[in-house]
Amino acid sequence: MEQPEEAADAPDAPRPADVPEAAPAPEAAPAPESAPAPEVPADGTPDAPAPDASRKRRPGRTAVLIAAAAVLGVVAGTCAGYLVQADREPTGLPPLSQPVLTRSGGEAPEPLSADRDRRVKTDGDLRELLLKKPRGTQEPDWPTGEDGWMDLAEYAGYYEESGSMFGQLAMDGFRRAAVVGWLDDDDYNVEIRLVQFRQEEGLAAAGNAENGRYWADDAEDTDSWAVPGTGDGRAYVHNSPDVEPGYEPLYAAEAHAWRGDISMEIWVYGTKPVPKKMIMDLAERQMERL
After folding, report:
1. pTM
2. Domain-by-domain residue ranges, the chain?
3. What does the alpha-carbon distance between residue 178 and residue 144 come to, in Å, rounded to a whole number?
4. From CA 223, how far away is CA 208, in angstroms rounded?
5. Topology (CATH) of 118-127+138-288
6. Which of 18, 149, 159, 204 is the Cys-Cys partner for 172 at CB 3.0 to 4.6 Å?
7. 3-class SS of residue 96
8. Spatial separation of the C-alpha atoms in residues 217 and 234, rounded to whole Å
9. Mean pLDDT by 10-residue block, N- to C-terminus, for the chain (290 residues)?
10. How many CB atoms lie within 10 A of CB 160?
């Protein structure tokens, strides 16, 4: 008996098209790359891992919140203080006038006399404090001011740099200058000046006397002595004469001191050396009158 034909004669099998196609399998996600191993330094100690930058907090936010809260607190405190002060009664100010005190019993001290009150003496006629011309003397060889007074321009003119000295004296508060002079029997020309300053900012009288001593000390072949009772007052005798062609040798002596707001200057010139006794006597007697 014949055997049936093999599969070729069997009924047709269903085609693949009749079977639903399976969904494609999803592609596998790539495996994350492993972080590189930290480098190990030569000493074998690994470095600490760097902190994750993505976890850092945004700076400044907390500081801004705190500052805003502080400002609100100040404003609230100011408003509260204003409201409290507005509800209070005004406080009266103390009187500007001083309380009247009862006068103590007894007699008040007598005012100083002109002989004891130095201010009264120096604010008066300054010429009265100059030494008087000795009897029998003559007018000096040079003018000594107008009616016993010397203004700023005339006084500054005795200095070599009169222009700058004029400005300096004006800044120092030059007030006035009284002057007296004479020519004695021994042909010595004597001139005494009392220069008064306002002294609003400093002891200009002391500075003027110091300036005179400075230039006197700077001269060569000069002897000097302290004037008693004047503190730093000094008298000078210049032993070397000033010689100019056509003129006799001229010897000189000078003294500089001060008291209060008055600077004293004494100048003596002659064709013979000036004795120490002469310049010292003039300086002491003139300072006693101050």
Report:
1. 0.60
2. 118-127+138-288
3. 9
4. 21
5. Protein Transport Mog1p; Chain A (3.40.1000)
6. 204
7. coil
8. 10
9. 45 46 49 51 51 52 70 74 72 72 72 65 85 90 82 92 92 95 92 94 93 93 95 96 91 96 96 96 95
10. 6
